[in-house]
Structure formats: structure tokens, C-alpha cells
Design the sequence.
């Protein structure tokens, strides 16, 4: 895909985000676009950056480390994919947020790695709302207890929740899952846990992000609609 195509796609996505916010009475500045650059080359990241995109999401540790070395622009990296504990060290100090914390053992390793550089990392708890075995995430009924445990780790800052709901051709069919995540977020916020904020909801992708925005998404993860079909790994 050409630089011009990527930049035009970004322009259209931003317009759709603004329209979705207008339709549900939200401030467009409350929604941030995460350009999902996984499987795409560093040149595509640079093309998007030239069009004003600063926030990028990666799902594979090795690909991220390779790409981050090639991208010299001051981008913000979010890690959005399933994360193995033995790979956390490669992200240490290099990503702004991890969206996919789904178990205490992973959180403890993240805390251990960020302790080494005496910093805190923003994290989201990934919730598997439909109990799909093909997807990671804690069960919704277990999420409050997990967040409570994470609040005790001094080098983590829990900022909210993330989900990958089931795929439906009709984006409106996904809305109940987005609504469920928002309601779970509100429930956890009501616990008033120290150091825990439920101000971020990472949900919605290329085909359904307007529905996610209508239900309160603050981070929408869009890849295909910006960069074209995903490359096979």
C-alpha cells in the first residue's frame, strides 16, 4: 500500500471517529486511535506518522523489537497482543502501555521488569467476555479480584480494561459485549482501589469501532482499515 493510501485511510478513519462521537454525544478528543501496525513494515509506520499518527499497537514481541529499532520517529508504542512472561523483558521501558494483562503471574513479571528501571507502566486488564477458548483474557467474574491484586504491585498502574469480543458481520451485534465491558469497568471503579483508574476502555477494531465508541471506548485498535489486509506471518 502506498504512502498516499495509508494517509488517506487515516484521514477517513479520523472522520469516522469524529462522526461516531458526534452521533452519541461524546467529545472526539476522548477517543484515541491505536494504529495496529503488526505484520506491517516500519515504512508503513513512518507513513502514518507523517500523517500525524503517533500511537501504534503491536502484537508480537519479536516483530515489535525489530520494528522499533527501525522507526526513529518519536512514536508511542502500545503492546496489544497475548504476552508470555518470558518475553516481558524485551518490552521493558519501550512501550507506553500493555493492553493484555490477563493473569497475576504476568503482572508480577511486568512489575519485576519495570522495577529494574524504577518506572511504572500503564496496563489494561484483558477480559474474555464470551469465554472463547481461542482468545486470552480473564473471565469477567474474576476481573475485579485480579485488578485488586494488581493494585498491590507498585510498578503497575491499572488504567482500565480491554476486550476482543466475538466477531459478527453486523457491528451492532457486538454492542452488548462492549456495553458489558463498560459496566464491568464501572463496577471495578466502584471498588475505589488505590492506584487503579478505570478511565480507559480498549475495544473496537476496523469493522466495529463506531459501535465501540457508542458504548464508551477510549482506545480503538484499527489496522486493516489503515494499512490494508494483514500479512501472513
Sequence:
Amino acid at each position: 500500500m502506498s504512502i498516499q493510501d495509508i494517509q488517506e485511510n487515516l484521514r477517513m478513519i479520523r472522520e469516522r471517529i469524529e462522526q461516531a462521537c458526534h452521533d452519541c454525544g461524546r467529545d472526539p478528543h476522548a477517543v484515541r486511535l491505536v494504529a495496529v501496525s503488526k505484520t506491517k513494515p516500519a515504512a508503513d509506520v513512518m507513513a502514518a506518522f507523517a500523517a500525524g499518527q503517533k500511537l501504534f499497537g503491536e502484537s508480537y514481541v519479536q516483530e515489535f523489537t525489530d520494528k522499533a529499532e527501525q522507526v526513529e520517529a518519536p512514536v508511542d508504542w502500545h503492546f496489544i497482543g497475548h504476552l508470555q512472561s518470558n518475553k516481558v523483558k524485551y518490552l521493558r521501558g519501550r512501550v507506553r502501555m500493555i493492553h493484555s494483562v490477563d493473569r497475576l503471574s504476568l503482572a508480577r513479571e511486568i512489575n519485576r521488569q519495570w522495577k529494574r528501571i524504577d518506572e511504572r507502566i500503564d496496563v489494561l486488564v484483558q477480559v474474555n467476555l464470551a469465554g472463547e477458548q481461542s482468545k486470552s483474557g480473564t473471565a469477567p467474574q474474576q476481573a475485579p479480584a485480579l485488578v485488586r491484586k494488581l493494585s498491590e504491585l507498585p510498578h503497575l498502574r491499572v488504567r482500565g480494561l480491554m476486550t476482543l469480543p466475538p466477531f459478527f458481520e453486523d457491528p451492532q451485534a457486538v454492542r452488548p459485549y462492549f456495553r458489558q465491558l463498560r459496566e464491568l469497568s464501572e463496577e471495578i471503579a466502584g471498588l475505589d482501589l488505590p492506584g487503579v483508574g478505570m478511565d480507559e476502555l480498549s475495544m473496537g477494531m476496523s469493522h466495529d469501532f463506531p459501535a465501540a465508541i457508542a458504548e464508551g471506548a477510549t482506545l480503538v485498535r484499527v489496522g486493516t482499515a489503515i494499512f490494508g489486509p494483514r500479512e501472513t506471518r
Observations:
- The chain is about 35% helix and 15% strand.
